[in-house]
Amino acid sequence: MFADAFGCHTSFHNGRDLEGKQESFSGCRTYNWKDKYFEYPPEELILEKIIQFLSEEDVELEKVEPGDILFVKPGEKMPVDGTVLSGESYVDESMITGEPLPRLKKRGDKVIGGTLNKNGALVFKAEKVGKDTLLSQIISLVEEAQSSRPAIQRVADRVVSYFIPVVLAIALLSFTVWYLVLGKPLLFSLTTLISVLVIACPCALGLATPTAVTTGIGRGAELGILIRNGEALEISHKLSTVILDKTGTLTLGKPTVTDIIPYGIDEDVLLKIAASVEKNSEHPLAESIVNKAKEKNIELVPVQSFETVEGRGVKAKILEEEILIGCKNFIQSENISLPENVRHDIEELEQQARTIVIVSQKDTILGILGISDPIKPNAKKAVNLLKKMGLNAIMLTGDNKKTAEVIGHELDIDRVIAEVLPQDKAKVVKDLQKEGEIVAFVGDGINDAPALAQADVGIAIGGGTDVAIESGDIVLMKDDPMDVVLAIDLSKKVMSRIKGNLFWAFTYNSILIPVAAGVLYPPFGITFRPEFAAFAMAMSSVTVVSLSLLLKRYKPKLSQV
Fold first, then answer.
1. How far is CA 262 from the centre of its chain?
2. What is the distance of C-alpha 288 from the center of its chain?
C-alpha cells in the first residue's frame, strides 16, 4: 500500500507538473503575439531626438505628450501614434496588420507606435501616447477577449459542477459493492475508491474550451484579426448570411471622377461650381470632386451658405444663387425635373457602374458627374469563398439600383440591396434576423456602427480607427476582404477544436472511471492501480492542452475552404 501511495504521489505530481508546464507553455505560446508587441517599443526606450520649438533633447518615452514633435531614424521603432510632418520612409507594420511588405509613409500619413522605421528619417507629430495608442488598445482588446467565456464554456462548467458529486458517488459505490456486498479485502476496496477519485479528470473538461479560445484569439491577433470575445468566435461558425457594405469593404473607398457632362456651360465651370460647394462636405464623393478640381488647377470660389441632407446631397449658395448637388432621388425630391437627355446620360453611366452626382441651379440641371470607386483586387475571390462556405453574400450600398447591380454582377453577388441610407443599414440587418438568419455585417466602422452593433457578428474592416475598434466584434487590421473569410474560417477551426477537446474529455472519463471502479476485474482480473490512475489523469489534461496548441500552427488554406 505504501508503494502504491508513493507511486500515486509521484505519478500525480510529475503528471501535474508536466501538465502545468504544458499549460504554462500554452500561455506563453498563445501570448506570443503579445510578447512580440511588447517588444515595440521597449519600456525604457529613450527617443534619440525630440524636436520641440526647434530645440532637441532626449526624453523618456513616458514623458512624451500629444503635440510633441518626434524624430525617428532608420531602424528605430515608432514610439507613439502620430502623423508624419516631413520625410519619407518605408515602415514595417506587419506586427499590427500582418502584412509582410512595408508601407511607404510620407507627409500627412499616419504612423503607429511600435512599428519599425526601415530606411528613411521621419519627423512626426505625436497624437496618441501611452494607453491611447493603437498598440495599447489592441493588447487590451485581446487580453479582454481571451478572458471572455463563450456559451459552450458555461455549458462545460455546468457539467463539471455535476461531474464532481457523481464521481464521489461512484467512488463510494465501488467501495461499498466490493467491500460490503462482495466481501473483498479492505485494501482492494480502498484501492478502487482511490483510483476512481484520482482518475476522474474534471480538469480536462475545464481546460477544453478556454485553451482553444485563448490560442485561437492569439493566433488571430498574429494574422491581424482582432476578436473581441469568445462569443464572437462561437457565433461566427454558425453564420448563415454575410452583409458586405460596398464602399471601403468591397471597393477601395477612394472614388474618382471619371465623367463630366455639362449642359449649357463649360466643363470646367461645372466642376468649379461642384467643387466649391463640396469642399465643405466630408463625404468621400465630395472629396473626389474637390480632388478632380485640384488636378485641373481650378480655383474655387467661396460659398455663402451650406447645408447637408444626410445620405442624399447638399444645398449651398454661390453668389446668391442656390445650388443643389446630390443623387437623382434628392434632386427629384426638390421638385426638379430631369430632361430626357439628362435621363439618357444617367442611364448610360449607371450601366458602367458609375455613381451619379447631379448639379443643379434652382430648377436647371447644370450637369452630371460620373464617379467610380474601383473594386478591391481580392473582393470577388472573397465573395466566391463565402458562397463556397455555404453563406449568403449580400452587398449593401447607398448607390442607385442599376449601378449597384452592375457592381454586384462583377463580384458574383446574387443579392444586392441598393439605395440604403446610412441610418437604415441596421434595419436591413434586423429584417434579415427576423427571417431567422444569423447575420454578420462587414463595414469600415465609420458610418456603419449601428449596423455593426445590430448584427450577430459585426466585422470592422481596416480597423486602424477608434470607431472600428469600438464597433466591431471582430476587427480586421487590413483592408483586405479576404480576411473576412479568414476570420470565419478561423472561428470554425477553433470551435471544431473545442468540440474535439470536449469529446476527448468525456470519452476519457466515460471509459476509465468504470475501469478504475473495477468493472473489468470479474471477467478479466484487470484493476487500475492508483499511480497509473494519477498518470492517466494528468495526461488527459496534457492531451487537451496539446490539441488546443495545434491552433498555433493554423495557416489559412482558403483554396480548400
1. 44
2. 28
Indicate if 245 belongs to the active site. Answer: yes
CATH number at residue 470: 3.40.50.1000
Cα separation, 292 vs 288, in Å, equals 6
Which H/E stretch holds residue 56? Answer: strand 55-57
CATH number at residue 126: 2.70.150.10
Per-residue cell: 166: 457523481
Q: Which amino acid is at 273?
A: I
Determine the Cα–Cα distance for residues 336 and 316; give it in Å rounded to an integer.
16
Q: Is residue 379 a contact partner of residue 411, using CB atoms and an 8 Å limit?
A: yes
Where residue 311 sits, what CATH number does that domain have? 3.40.1110.10
**Tens place of pLDDT per residue across the chain (561 aa):** 433 443 444 443 444 443 443 333 333 333 343 444 444 443 333 334 444 444 556 667 778 889 888 888 888 888 899 999 888 888 988 767 666 678 889 888 899 888 888 888 888 899 998 888 888 877 776 666 556 666 777 777 777 778 888 888 988 998 898 888 888 888 888 888 888 888 887 777 788 888 898 899 889 988 889 888 888 888 999 999 999 998 888 988 788 999 999 999 999 999 999 999 999 987 878 999 999 999 999 999 999 899 988 778 899 999 888 999 999 889 998 889 999 999 999 999 988 888 899 999 988 999 999 998 889 999 999 999 999 999 999 999 887 788 888 899 999 998 999 988 877 888 999 999 999 999 999 987 656 778 888 899 999 887 545 555 566 789 888 889 999 999 999 999 999 998 888 888 888 888 888 888 888 888 888 887 888 888 888 888 888 899 999 998 888 776 555
Residue 154 one-letter amino acid: R
Closest to 461 measured CA to CA, from 451, 43, 2? 451
What is the distance between the alpha carbons of residues 114 and 95, in angstroms, rounded to a whole number?
Answer: 8
* 203 and 347 housed in the same domain: no
Instruction: Select from 311, 345, 372 the last residue of a domain.
Output: 372
Nearest-angstrom CA–CA distance, 483 and 378: 10
Q: Which three cell numbers stand for residue 457?
A: 457578428
Q: Are residues 36 and 96 both part of a single domain?
A: yes
How many domains does the structure of the chain reveal?
Answer: 4
Last residue of a domain, one of 372, 387, 419: 372
Q: Which three cell numbers stand for residue 277?
A: 460647394
Reported pTM: 0.71
**Cell 455639362, located at residue:** 262
CA 360 to each of CA 321, 331, 338: distance values in angstroms, whole numbers, following the listed order: 10, 8, 10
Q: Report if residue 167 sits inside a domain.
A: yes
The 8-class DSSP code of residue 115 comes to P
Residues 195 and 236 in one domain: no
Residues 382 and 479 reside in one and the same domain: yes
Residue bearing cell 512580440: 36
Domain ranges, residue 66: 28-132
The answer to whether 242 and 386 are in contact (CB under 8 A) is yes
Same domain, 273 and 368: yes
Same structural domain, 32 and 69:
yes
Residue 1 lies in a domain: no
Other beta carbons within 10 Å of 408: 24
From 92, 245, 345, 399, the catalytic residue: 245
